[in-house]
Design goal:
Blueprint (H helix, E strand, L loop, with lengths): L1 H19 L2 H4 L3 E2 L10 H4 L5 H11 L4 E6 L2 E6 L2 H8 L29 H11 L5 H25 L6 E4 H16 L14 H10 L6 H12 L1 H9 L5 H20 L6 H11 L8 H4 L13 H32 L1 H17 L10 H5 L2 H13 L5 E5 L4 E2 L6 E2 L4 E5 H5 L41 H18 E3 L24 E6 L2
Parallel strand pairs: 1-2, 3-8
Antiparallel strand pairs: 2-3, 4-10, 5-8, 6-7, 9-10
Helix pairs in contact: 7-8, 7-20, 8-15, 9-12, 10-11, 12-15, 15-18, 15-20, 16-18
Length: 516
């Protein structure tokens, strides 16, 4: 009798699974073949291929504009058409304004950041934070970024002090640079991880990006944040919260309380958050805002420390990896294209002369803005190696796909493979070639609708310009002070990693030597 009951249960589950994993075929969509119970992510589960590349693989092998996929047991749609993707992100944003991620403002305030928040909560916060990244604010924070850039150059100079060429793993070095910028500009800390690699902030950073140091429950919770928010909510209520984020919150809390008590002011993002917390808004661009400290009673403050900490954490996660990746991938590609390297290095030398700056000295915000060819290099790098290889949305109302009889149901997860689109020869001829000139105004050898490395529409990356400045400062200083040794072309191989970013196998090894 028991065996019969088990057979009935098993048969029922198999029938249910068969129905569940054929949803897209039944609705008329082209579909990636699903494997029970991992859906389209069998290679991710087996740690054979990272999530971003699995999505790109599906993009490459399918043909229709919209393809049904299964993120384990969660049905979603992969967009394979750049125009439709941009339409979802911009003109039809009201039908796709949420990301569909886990967020619980009340019970897990560290989950309530600009990336995950939904609806009116997101709109209100976005409006408040947008002035933080104006040209005037970025210019005011530039000296802090430049200071970290000088520490990077001192570190490289010390490693190359014998005057010979050395092969360095540039990605790890630039990760230190990026983390120190985030620590200084966003968390308001005086840190130098090049000289003191064991400082509290760097140790937490290594813990955050090293999945081997996470418990199984923490990894499952992180996966469910994206795959199945209701399960993430349950796990959070049961106490499965990331300890690193709450330790970073403690750092923010200590720094804010110290500044408010002592009247300390620094030109950084945290200072703008404190202003927003105390006054309900961020001032217009001026030097005056950095020198005034306003405070109010705790019950009247418009932004909690948890809210500041959660968004600081967001900018930390997004900013440190993208800055390090963009800068190191650019250097790696320049080493394989000597003619592009020479053009970029000559531009840096000319701009330094124009602004009366020395290679080993400080840069200025205006000089960085004049590096137009370096802008093209950064664009080409973020095209070939987007910091986040995919974008995600959730349909907030039914949406009929243009020129089709198909409809996207309300509540459906939407995935846009940036890696797939950015490496599609239909949009970018010879996509594996590194060609900064493709973005030049007089050539435009690409489809502008397909280029969206920072997202598009109302939910595009709010700190995009800050990220570009951070990368250009490091690139300009390295090009001004060091020779990058040419090497034969070799495409980067990516290894499996739980983080949704492109992680090179064995890092990025490049030969450097001192110029002067």
């Amino acid at each position: 009798m028991l065996i019969l009951l088990l057979l009935i249960v098993l048969t029922t589950l198999l029938v249910f699974a068969k129905i569940h994993y054929t949803k897209w075929e039944r609705l008329g969509f082209e579909s990636d073949k699903a494997a029970i119970p991992f859906g389209s992510l069998t290679k991710v589960f087996r740690k054979e291929r990272p999530f971003g590349l699995v999505l790109s693989d599906i993009y490459d092998k399918c043909h229709e504009k919209v393809v049904g996929i299964y993120l384990f047991f969660n049905p979603a749609l992969l967009i394979r058409d750049a125009e439709l993707a941009r339409q979802i992100l911009t003109t039809d944003f009201n039908s796709f304004h949420d990301r569909g991620l886990y967020v619980d403002e009340k019970n897990d305030p560290m989950s309530a950041n600009l990336f995950a928040m939904e609806g009116q909560s997101w709109r209100s916060l976005r409006m408040k934070l947008t002035p933080s990244f104006s040209s005037g604010k970025l210019k005011g924070m530039f000296d802090t970024v430049d200071d970290v850039g000088d520490k990077l150059i001192r570190h490289l100079s010390e490693r190359l002090k014998d005057g010979k060429s050395h092969t360095l793993e540039i990605k790890s070095i630039l990760t230190t640079y990026a983390i120190d910028i985030i620590g200084s500009v966003i968390f308001g800390l005086e840190i130098d991880s090049f000289s003191h690699p064991d400082n509290e902030f760097r140790v937490l950073s290594d813990r955050l990006f090293n999945s081997n140091k996470s418990t199984v429950l923490e990894r499952v919770r992180g996966l469910m944040n994206f795959m199945c928010p209701p399960i993430a909510r349950i796990l959070s209520r049961l106490g499965a919260k990331d300890p690193v984020t709450y330790r970073l919150r403690d750092i923010v809390k200590r720094t804010i309380e110290f500044r408010e008590e002592k009247g300390v002011v620094r030109k950084d993002l945290l200072q703008l958050f404190i202003q927003l917390r105390n006054t309900g808004k961020i001032s217009d661009d001026s030097d005056k805002l950095w020198n005034e400290v306003e405070s109010t009673a705790e019950n009247l403050k418009s932004m909690s420390i948890d809210m500041i900490a959660s968004n600081s954490f967001l900018f930390y996660i997004a900013g440190s990896e993208t800055t390090a990746a963009t800068t190191s991938f650019t250097i790696y590609e320049l080493a394989m294209y000597p003619e592009i390297l020479k053009k970029a290095q000559n531009e840096v030398d000319e701009v330094l002369r124009k602004h009366n700056l020395k290679p080993e000295g400080r840069l200025t915000y205006e000089a960085i803005q004049d590096l137009k060819y370096l802008d093209l290099c950064v664009m080409e790098t973020t095209r070939k190696y987007p910091g986040l290889p995919f974008l995600n949305r959730k349909s907030t109302q039914a949406f009929k796909i243009p020129d089709s009889k198909l409809t996207i149901e309300k509540g459906t997860g939407i995935i846009i493979s940036l890696l797939g689109i950015h490496r599609d020869p239909k949009y970018f001829p010879n996509p594996m070639d590194y060609k900064p000139e493709r973005f030049a105004e007089d050539s435009q050898d690409y489809s502008p609708v397909a280029f969206m490395p920072f997202g598009e529409g109302p939910r595009h990356c709010i700190a995009q310009r800050m990220g570009v400045i951070n990368s250009k400062v490091a690139l300009a200083k390295i090009l001004a002070n060091f020779n990058i040794q040419p090497m034969p072309r070799k495409e980067v191989e990516f290894k499996f990693h739980t983080a949704p970013v492109l992680v090179p196998v064995n890092g990025l090894n490049v030969g450097l030597s001192k110029r002067w």
